[in-house]
Amino acid sequence: MNATIVTVGDEILIGQVVDTNSAWLGSQLVSLGIDVAEIRSISDKEEPILEAIGTAFQQSALVFMTGGLGPTKDDITKKAIAKYFNASMVFHEPTFEVIKAMFIRFNRTMSESHMEQCYMPDNAVILPNKMGTAPGMLFHQGEKMLFSMPGVPFEMKAIFEDNIKEILIQKTGNTAFIHHRTLMTVGQGETALADKIQYIVDTFPPQISMAYLPSLGSVRLRITGKSTSPSIKEEVEHYASLVEKEVDYYVYGYDNETLEAAVKRMIDQKKWTLATAESCTGGYLAHRLTSIPGSSSYFQGSIVSYSNTVKQNLLGVKAETLATFGAVSEETVLEMAEGCKNRLHVDIAISISGIAGPDGGSPEKPVGTVWFAIAYPGENTKAYKITASKDRLKNIEYAANVIMGKLLRKLAAKEISYRLS
Amino acid sequence: MNATIVTVGDEILIGQVVDTNSAWLGSQLVSLGIDVAEIRSISDKEEPILEAIGTAFQQSALVFMTGGLGPTKDDITKKAIAKYFNASMVFHEPTFEVIKAMFIRFNRTMSESHMEQCYMPDNAVILPNKMGTAPGMLFHQGEKMLFSMPGVPFEMKAIFEDNIKEILIQKTGNTAFIHHRTLMTVGQGETALADKIQYIVDTFPPQISMAYLPSLGSVRLRITGKSTSPSIKEEVEHYASLVEKEVDYYVYGYDNETLEAAVKRMIDQKKWTLATAESCTGGYLAHRLTSIPGSSSYFQGSIVSYSNTVKQNLLGVKAETLATFGAVSEETVLEMAEGCKNRLHVDIAISISGIAGPDGGSPEKPVGTVWFAIAYPGENTKAYKITASKDRLKNIEYAANVIMGKLLRKLAAKEISYRLS
Q1: How many Å apart are CA A107 and CA A184, to the nearest integer?
Q2: Is residue A417 included in any domain, yes or no?
Q3: Cβ-defined contact of B393 to A291 (cutoff 8 Å)
Q4: B118 shares its domain with B215
Q5: Which residues are CB-neighbours of B307 under 8 A, at least 6 positions away?
Q6: Residue A159: which CATH number?
Q7: Residue that is last in its domain, among A116, A137, A172
């Protein structure tokens, strides 16, 4: 079964917005065994919308449209779709109730254009949107289906996960068994990992495939099996375990567990506490760690010491250290980590100081130079150096990922082997 | 004149890669007065490539293809395009020289697949690629043109800027003028803004249009004009100023300036300093502020006081305050802001404490309740309450956006000029 994704909106065509919805939808569909034949981005005018629906139905049993369901005047997608399906617009009480409740909660008044949103095509199945006011819609054309969703990414995702996924699972039925196992790795690049495991991948049977999914400082290794037999699951697990054995040192988790989720899982096991002292990352590591629900179980806080004054006053870094070695140095991050550990009374303290860029580099310390230190129970505090790139935001993210990776290997005592399943 | 953009590659369809090339190309084309009729992402197989070229030429005078020109086995775009244009492949000496020089530089040996890259369609104009091994190509079909470029973003951009832009400027001549003005707003939803300005939008002449581009807590209002006369610029500016006047209180900047960039711009003007004291946002606001290069000009640091102990020890929040009113309260954020201001010796201190979720809510303080306070020069420190949603990460982002919006209005002294009607 295949699908066409259609995103509607001039803001995509003129490049004001990057279409991330299609990539997210594509990965979801692929994981359900649905091929994506094509992604189209079109103008929010009636004619291209009607044409796109017709063309999409010619090549695909499933069509996913995003965008153009908001309350303002420039959004005409709903009307165009209704026209294609010869629908009449009828007042939809449940949508009205959702919008009304939202307005009561925010203590605002509903306007004319919000009332407009309550009118829905009479032959659509309405897909509730818990994150916003515009619900999704499902239309049938014979055996084929068209799903329309708002373009706001978190609303689109919520509607897909709450309503559409189950419909697709039922529709695709048992024609194919698909099983994935993803090994989450950190600390080694795609090519170096590939060099280590290629000899195993070469033995994969045709129904098993391998994908390298790199991001900054970490790589997901996804082993996928697709077969008409349910035994594909055991086959995938067999090959995944062979791969894992070879790159065990770099594997920190499975199946899209984030670095920050793994940090929480492993520190919670030890009932330890942690704090950070951040300069160049400006609170980004603390943000990543606290993005996980319940992270207050171990995370105590952070001192973002962007200025040297704050490094001295709040972390107790010595003025001589800063004068002699500079803010970006082994000596400074060691004092920052010690200061953080003592002043926040934590088991683990992580300190970071670097040159995020684009300015501030020198021949000895080019942009991308980052020092970090970890004060860890039962060890002398150690410092490490990272060399990143020239892009400020990438350097901040890369540093956070590398540091979490380093911490995870300490927590897992990777010298002893680590295996969950 | 209009264009179709076609991106080739299964990695886009299955969501492994987000197609950022199209957005970049779209914005370039629009700035040259070229409409983008459609963006398509297709599979790197011969049949869809041939079909896409044919369809694109039906609707557009200009076709831009990216992707599928690399050395690996799964890239067949070049051959498919050559087939469409009935081209023979001939050895292209300049491309060979470029590739050879690159391999000498990196001290590597050219492989069979790299030699393959030196064969080019005999009826293509070759567009040199200074950033990589695969050059771009230009094909003519009568008056129409197809440009093919590699998918690696910085290679694609270099080829476009070095070779294609000039060709397009000559081709489009003076047939169309396009002008955009984007008003960046914060603190009011799309619908409420639309209600205020609809009466102005209703007077727009046909060559001027309006788009609402919402994100969390902020909305971009884009006014676009398109005409054969260069006076369209003044027309756009005229209508943009009418719109701005009506929603002035919410406008913090223009043309894609981020909230954090506006904060830096406005605080730098006053030569002030700022620090944050963050609980539920966990350092995210500090991260956003420090994502702007040079933010150390005003940003001193942050105390991420995730635990109550840190709130007391590092910010001086009183134990009685926490016991009586709770960590998420007006009283606590006021003491946090004061403590932050005094201990970090800054002009402006911002404090935040809330229930990001998904757990930790109560009937009195549901998930999404966020208190923040701003200690500001020449004012008593004031606290404000936000009611956000149920999603943890969205609440963190929403809070940061609302708070930056509030701060920007203080910095612009907009509170005085605010008209209620």
Answers
A1: 44
A2: no
A3: yes
A4: no
A5: A296, A299, A300, A301
A6: 3.40.980.10
A7: A172
Q: For A65-75, write each residue's pLDDT tens digit.
A: 998 776 665 56
Tally of structural domains, chain B: 3
Total CB pairs under 8 A between chain A and B = 271
Residue B414 is encoded by which pair of tokens?
């907009």
Q: Is A38 on the interface with B (CB under 8 A)?
A: yes
Cβ–Cβ below 8 Å for A286 and B304: yes
- Cα separation of A154 and A240, whole Å? 32
Could you tell me the CA-to-CA distances from B7 to A106, B38, B140, B164 in Å, in that order?
A: 42, 11, 19, 17
Secondary structure letter of residue B146 according to DSSP: E
User: Model pTM?
Assistant: 0.77
B16 closest CB neighbour out of A11, A71, A213: A213
Cβ of A287 within 8 Å of Cβ of B282? The answer is: yes
Please provide the DSSP assignment of B87-137 as one string. Answer: PPEEE-HHHHHHHHHHHHHTT----HHHHHTTEEETTSEEE--TTSSPPEE
ipTM metric: 0.76
> Could you report the per-residue pLDDT of A103-127, keeping only the tens digit for each?
887 777 777 777 888 899 999 999 9
Tokens 């609809």 belong to which residue? B198
The answer to whether the CB atoms of B191 and A113 lie below 8 A apart is: yes
Q: Is the pLDDT of residue A417 over 60?
A: no
Contacts of B185 (CB under 8 A, 6+ apart): B193, B218, B219, B220, B221, B247, B250, B251, B252
Put simply, whether A131 touches B (Cβ < 8 Å) is yes
The residue range of the domain holding B148 is 2-172
